[in-house]
Design a protein that fits this description.
With about 425 residues, the protein is α+β, with helices and mostly antiparallel strands. The chain has 15 helices and 16 strands. The strands form 3 sheets. It has an 8-stranded mixed β-sheet with strand order 1-5-6-11-10-9-7-8. Helix 1 runs antiparallel to helix 5 and helix 5 packs parallel to helix 9. It starts with 12 loop residues before the first helix and ends with a helix.
């Protein structure tokens, strides 16, 4: 039997209610604050991620899906560079910001997105090879006020989705000058323990030492706990930026945990970084931070920017863990039952007329007998049945039957709309 590829999942109708809740609340909130939606391609040239995310990150070295092409289709399709299914959205949005001249727009440019990302890694609960993210990007501002605004907005989004008992972990990894000092300190600290840490961390020690602090292997945790605090290596300007950010968060009464060893897995981050974590400190629901140098890497002028991405699957798992139960898609208010060929033909135009007038109405596409169609209505617990037979078709009437008590009456079709509105109003 054919199955979905490992690390992917089918999102069935009974689960869609959670996805719809997240997307609806997210878009409602951010659009009211002036964010515009952006949709970038699902695949980009490999250099977008090597340049933006970092050539020696796990994402680029281990987790990228390469798009294989069968051949070229025309003389313009001859670029030899590999195409990659996007592992994250920020690099592609930065590329789009430069390509479409968004630096000439009124600044800052506020964007949001919702869609799938692709990472080739070991699938586990809440982490799939095809997973979905909802995210925000604010480009064209260096102000710590913006950092607090974004974190406050993220808090609002999760609360409106229905979550509670979460907190922000926050840190600063400074500017490139700060990070050079941080890398030296981390490298010097870890060198005596090189043979005691995991093989991945041994590789990171020479290539990307800050990523040592992000290791999840149990054997590496004691070394992380005693590693140097990154904040000790911030320059005065970065320290002031972080101090102001925290003061704004305190003014907003946003709870946070300062985590001096928090890092993010992508190289483009600068200064403020943060993660949203449940109270039990399990896997982060989302995270983000500043990326003040990324636009310049893509050929733009120096541009301050900050962003956030939340994992949809992890958010749904947390919703269920916190006991948030959502009702399935509302069932129809009525079912339209047809008996005989002429009634069957009439039922389609009547169905779309009722739907256009705002009623939620169902129709049997297969069952023909009165009994089978009524049974279908009972199974779905639909309150009203509209019965259209040969006689009713000729007389331009319809039978409205209450499925709860069996009472029914015949109504002229021209009066049906007003009758149903009154009927449903009474029932509600």
């Amino acid at each position: 039997m054919l199955q979905a590829p490992r690390g992917t999942e089918d999102i069935l109708p009974n689960e869609q209610v959670y996805w719809q809740k997240i997307e609806k609340e997210f878009e409602r909130i951010v659009s009211s604050l002036g964010f515009g939606k952006i949709a970038t391609p699902f695949f980009e040239y490999k250099s977008v991620f090597e340049r933006g995310v970092g050539a020696v990150t796990d994402v680029v070295e281990k987790q990228m899906f390469i798009v294989k092409r069968a051949g070229t289709f025309d003389e313009l399709d001859t670029v030899e560079e590999e195409l990659i299914l996007r592992p994250e959205a920020t690099a592609g949005i930065a590329r789009s910001y430069v390509e479409h001249g968004m630096q000439t727009w009124p600044q800052p440019v506020k964007l949001y997105y919702f869609g799938p990302m692709f990472r080739y890694e070991r699938p586990q609960k809440g982490r799939l090879r095809q997973h979905y993210q909802f995210g925000l990007e604010i480009l064209g501002t260096n102000n710590p006020f913006t950092d607090a605004f974004l974190i406050g907005l993220v808090k609002t989004i999760y609360q409106e989705i229905g979550l509670s008992n979460f907190i922000f972990e926050i840190n600063s990894i400074g500017c490139p000058n700060c990070r050079a000092k941080m890398k030296r300190a981390i490298t010097n600290y870890y060198k005596p323990f090189k043979d005691l840490i995991c093989s991945s961390c041994q590789n990171r020690l020479s290539k990307n030492p800050l990523r040592l602090l992000d290791c999840k292997q149990e054997k590496c945790q004691p070394f992380i706990a005693n590693a140097p605090a990154l904040i000790d290596y911030l320059c005065p300007s970065c320290k002031e930026h972080f101090k102001n950010t925290l003061e704004y968060l305190e003014d907003l009464n946003i709870p946070y945990d300062f985590n001096p060893r928090l890092v993010r897995g992508l190289d483009y981050y600068t200064k403020t970084i943060f993660e949203v974590v449940p109270q039990d400190k399990s896997a982060a629901l989302g995270g983000g931070g500043r990326y003040d140098n990324l636009i310049e890497l893509f050929g733009g002028s120096p541009t301050g920017a900050i962003g956030f991405a939340g994992g949809v699957e992890r958010t749904i798992l947390e919703m269920k863990k916190q006991g948030i139960r959502l009702e399935p898609t509302p069932k129809p208010d009525m079912i339209l039952i047809h008996l005989g060929d002429s009634a069957k033909k009439k039922s389609l135009s009547l169905l779309f007329q009722l739907q256009k007038e705002g009623f939620k109405v169902s129709l049997s596409l297969e069952k023909e007998s009165l009994k089978s169609q009524l049974n279908a209505a009972n199974k779905l617990k639909i309150p009203l049945a509209l019965i259209l037979g040969q006689k009713e078709t000729k007389e331009k009437t319809i039978i409205v039957r209450n499925m709860l008590d069996g009472a029914q009456e015949t109504i002229p079709l021209k009066k049906l709309t007003n009758f149903l509105k009154a009927k449903l109003e009474v029932q509600s």
